Amino acid sequence: MDTAMILEYGWVLLVLIGLEGILAADNAVVMAVMVKHLPDEQQKKALFYGLIGAFVFRFAALFLISFLAEVWQVQALGAAYLLYICISHMWKHAKGKDDDHKVKEGKGSSFWMTVLKVEIADIAFAIDSMLAAVALAITLPATGWGTIGGLDTGQFAVMFIGGLVGLICIRFAATQFVKLLKKYPSLETAAFLIVGWVGVKLVVYTLAHPELGVIPEHFPHSTVWKLTFWAVMIGIIIWGWLVSVRSAKKKEA
């Protein structure tokens, strides 16, 4: 693996970890609201079962989706999904809407009914998380280390690490991540812009798929496209950081 490929894998992994952190924060908030009506001891047990479910469902989704990753329809779906969550966030941000998930507490729910609801939510978040992960990973160049399912081993490893970090975020870092985003809200906007830009990259990959051939197959791997992609990516990161720092200083003033 050459230096350029290492950098590309590193950047995508960082983007995926950031996205998984955002999704994990949402997941943690939903789980907390769902178990809120239970006694303290049962809350801990329900959350523990929820974490087990999150682990099982996320990696089940990972292995299932990995077998379909090279199907251009799945690539198109992944691109559409990334663009959707980017545009959806920007739209809600522009409208000033609260993007928090609102879940009924269900005060009459028994312990096991609450656990069932948490597990159903885990399934939805698992699909959400792994679809985002595969959409990011399949834009990476193949390492040539073999395949797992329909994915190159390196691509699969990025998805696996991202999913694992997401679970760690749910368990330990979700609250801190929410605090960071509250302090530097523009970082979230920059993160979603990056997600949208990766969605554009996946659109390019989809259009270059041999079964479609809308654009030349070699274009996604060309120097011109790679330089363009990373120039925009770095520009978004710099913009997000500068705006976040400036906004924080204004609040402190």
From TrEMBL:
Keywords from the named record: Membrane, Transmembrane, Transmembrane helix
Q: How does it sit in the membrane?
A: Multi-pass membrane protein
Q: Which domain of life is it from?
A: Bacteria
Where, subcellularly, is it found?
A: Membrane
Q: Which Pfam family would be a valid example here?
A: TerC
Q: Name one GO cellular component term.
A: membrane
Looking at the UniProt entry, the stretches that span the membrane are: 12-35, 47-68, 74-91, 111-136, 156-174, 186-207, 227-245
Q: According to its UniProt record, where is this protein mainly located? A: membrane
> What is the similarity comment for this entry?
Belongs to the TerC family.
What is the protein named? TerC family membrane protein
Q: What lineage does the source organism belong to? A: Bacteria, Bacillati, Bacillota, Bacilli, Bacillales
